[in-house]
Amino acid sequence: MTAVITKDKKVTHNNKGNSKVISSTKVDRKDAKLALAHIMVAFIALFVGGLCGLLQVLVRSGQFKLPFGIGYYQVLTVHGVLLGLILTTYFILGFQTAAVSRTAGALSNKQRKTGWVGFWIMTIGMLAAATMVLLNEASVLYTFYAPLQAHWIYYLGLTLVVVGSWIVGLAQSLRYIQWRKENKGQTSPLLSFMVVVNNLMWFVATLGVAAEVLFQLLPWSLGFIERIDVLLTRTLFWYFGHALVYFWLLPAYMVWYAIVPKIVGGKIFSDALARLSFMLFLLFSIPVGVHHQLTEPGIDGFWKFVQVVLTFFVVIPSLLTAFSMFATFELRGRELGAKGVFGWFKNLPWNDVRFLLPFIGMVAFIPGGAGGLVNASYQMNQLIHNTIWVTGHFHLTVATTVVLTFFGTAYWLIPHLTGRKLTKKMNNLGIVSGILWSVGMVIMSGAMHIAGLFGAPRRSEYSTYGGSEQATEWISYQVAQAVGGTILFIAILFIIGIVVNLLWFAPKGEEEFPIAEVAEGAEKTPALLENFKVWGVILVALILIAYTIPLIDIVQNSPLGSKGYKFW
Amino acid sequence: MHIHKYEKWWLSFGAAMLVAFLVIVGVSAFHNGTHPNNSKWTINYEKVDEIAPFNQPGVHKVEGKDWDYEVVLVASAFSYNPMNIEIPVGSKVKFIATTKDVIHGFEVAGTNINMMLEPGYVSEYVTTADKVGEFLIVCNEYCGAGHAMMYSKLMVVNSNDSSNH
């Protein structure tokens, strides 16, 4: 039997005891407020961070200078922090709260209160960090590599963002645990399960950056310790840093696996394979961070290669996902009477923004993933490391695949939460926003990839490098990036307009929170896939294998530590 | 757990590609020795100017080693020493570089020569300069306000002195 139907019955049953009547197909009203608070912060971050992105591409075209003594790297720090950390984390936690409330049932008052505590801790932390960036005390970018030393409040603020996110994630996970207790022996709702996998990965990964900040950067910036081990801070950062990108990606996968099939009118191809791919992402998200450090001294080639191998294993869940998606689309297309090998393609709901934006995201992931394989390919990494190719790469993956899926989700999730409707007009504007985004990104990311292959560095202000012939070649691509970036900013204006409409002005009504059912004939999900103990043990084992010896090496061979520098 | 026939084919194809990729990368690294910078050489970053070979930055011709030239380079905010490097085409070169302050990059634009320079560590890379031309060396790791002003030049020139090669 399908897991989803069983679950819906149970939720209704669970709510019988409550005085309120809650439909199992809707997010609880109070939970909706918590989710909305997160989503609103995410879209404010999109606007401000996007504006900073626009300023950057304009400066780098060589045609524009920042006014009022604002620094390029200050703007770059704001762009990275707001879009890489704030937009993503807030949207993800808002979406996940709604997803758990919708599929496992309303949060208890205690769980919801926990969620709010987390939200405010994150928000206080964000404002503290933002203040330091605005005061030009923290132009160290969102990766804050030592020995550039920011004000301690910047580090503390970002720590609070992470701690707050743990607490919100805990609230969501507690609701899942409650469901498992109340429904012993049953397969849990797919979306809630996925949320918990993502939260678990996030928690294990952020332990690395927490150790970096709490034991090294904070005491060092406060003056309690004079010197720190730079390579150790970087290794702890990247233990976290690559899992961070999967933390962005997995919520998009949740939408693809559990929601998009319903939007196209189809079924989930296989519940078991969906869960398996999430567990594989959990395993191969963390013991791979050294592939960001391939050109660094102090780490042995053998261990770099071990992590390269582990990195490549992500190919398996990625291919599983691609297969499942297109199987769902093809089955649905044929159900609607499609003929021929590719006839089903025409029968997909191309004029539905809820489908189109995630679909563009899936397509962008093909070149995005391929570029990622280049980056992780040990020797090949030398050609593109720290060039603007890398920036082009993650603007395809996170800034297209992930965020277009998020926007396509926000367009139905926000009205679902506010009790309004996504009108035909907003749907069409949403499609325009997605197309603008795609056009802008093809130009900007394409130009970044090409200029990167020629050697143009990332994270650099406009420069002619003393009139170098090579640098002159890069400038036409930087102009193209400015054109693409401008189109992207126009897309952001559309998106903000639509979000404002859906928050406060759209007609009242009920917008569906689509949840797909599992295809008939799909086999029952093996209980092993929900056994977090087993997967947790494998995860810890892989992390220990990948990191123990490199970390011992780094600590044992540590040179004189570094003092802090403020070079901005 | 049942897996669809086509999905089995698809995953087998994917796994085979994965193995092929890794074998190519692995053989190239461990058999042909094409590793990126993996140097374990540590140094007191505050005394770089006093420690050999960094007390004499520049291009040095060497004998009896696997390479013909050593390029010794010191990075600091926001410049490289030396500013200009000249080596004859076809020669095997070892780049030896470090930093006196924060992290810098050492990238010869458009080539495979690309290393992170981190305080306390020496970075090393051996390669053959097989193309004549002027190459831009850029700092590709953000190091502060003057980051984009940090560059130098690598000239690979036709050698008149062919007796050694």
UniProtKB/TrEMBL annotation, chain A:
Keywords: Electron transport, Membrane, Respiratory chain, Transmembrane, Transmembrane helix, Transport. The keyword DNA-binding does not apply. Pfam families: COX1. One of its GO terms (molecular function) is cytochrome-c oxidase activity. Gene3D superfamilies: Cytochrome c oxidase-like, subunit I domain. This is B(O/a)3-type cytochrome-c oxidase subunit 1. GO terms for cellular component: membrane. PROSITE patterns: COX1 (PS50855). It comes from the Bacteria. InterPro entries: Ba3-like_Oxidase_I, Cyt_c_oxase-like_su1_dom, Cyt_c_oxase-like_su1_sf, Cyt_C_Oxase_1. The chain crosses the membrane at residues 34-59, 71-93, 114-132, 152-171, 191-217, 237-260, 272-290, 302-329, 355-374, 394-414, 435-455, 475-504, 534-552. SUPFAM superfamilies: Cytochrome c oxidase subunit I-like. One of its GO terms (biological process) is aerobic respiration. Residues 33-504 form the Cytochrome oxidase subunit I profile domain.
Automatic annotation (TrEMBL), chain B:
Its main location: other. It comes from the Bacteria. One of its GO terms (cellular component) is cell envelope. CDD domains: ba3_CcO_II_C (cd13913). Pfam families: COX2. The chain crosses the membrane at residues 9-30. GO terms for molecular function: copper ion binding; cytochrome-c oxidase activity. It catalyses: 4 Fe(II)-[cytochrome c] + O2 + 8 H(+)(in) = 4 Fe(III)-[cytochrome c] + 2 H2O + 4 H(+)(out). Subunits I and II form the functional core of the enzyme complex. Electrons originating in cytochrome c are transferred via heme a and Cu(A) to the binuclear center formed by heme a3 and Cu(B). This is Cytochrome aa3 subunit 2. It comes from Lysinibacillus composti. The lineage of its organism: Bacteria, Bacillati, Bacillota, Bacilli, Bacillales.
